[in-house]
Specification:
By secondary structure, the chain is mostly beta strands. The protein contains no helices and 10 strands. It has a 5-stranded antiparallel β-sheet, with no helix packed on it. A 5-stranded antiparallel β-sheet has the order 2-3-10-5-8, with no helix packed on it.
């Protein structure tokens, strides 16, 4: 089963952006900053890739893109992640979800948040087991765990 626009060649078409972020310190009405877009400076497949920025100054937070898909006969979700350099510090984690569509939407605790996006240099393919059968939700993004701002690049999201 193919995901629509899994390599972001048509921008964010077919994807919905989701966020579970803490509130800004001292301001209980506003969430911390994040940005989701498409870049052409790095891509593992085609000419475009997904870039996610998260301001982690308040606490952990997760930002992702999602779309519904038929997960019948699917055993693996794969996503490529880019890192400029290998780092022993875990700042951003690759976050994935495959399963039923939650009634109230996804939250940070629904995601598999491992491994570190910066556990290598260059592009790396991450693989996750898919245990849901039938129509479900596929979500891929990043989780920040340090109190800093950071951006990461993901591409070539696919089901096998």
């Amino acid at each position: 089963m193919a995901l629509a626009n899994g390599s972001f060649e048509s921008g964010l078409d077919s994807w919905t952006v989701g966020k579970d972020l803490p509130e800004k310190p001292g301001d209980s009405d506003e969430k911390v900053d994040s940005d989701v877009g498409v870049v052409t400076s790095q891509a593992s497949d085609g000419a475009s890739a997904l870039e996610i920025f998260i301001d982690g100054s308040a606490d952990d937070g997760t930002v992702w893109v999602q779309q519904e898909a038929d997960l019948s006969d699917v055993s693996t979700l794969k996503v490529d992640g880019y890192s400029e350099q290998n780092s022993f510090n875990t700042i951003l984690e690759v976050s994935t979800y495959t399963g039923p569509v939650p009634e109230d939407g996804l939250v940070e605790t629904d995601f598999v948040t491992e491994p570190s996006l910066w556990d290598h240099e260059g592009w790396k393919t991450y693989e996750y087991d898919v245990d849901h059968d039938g129509t479900g939700l596929v979500a891929v993004g990043l989780n920040i765990i340090w109190e800093t701002g950071a951006a990461g690049i993901l591409d070539n999201i696919r089901l096998e």
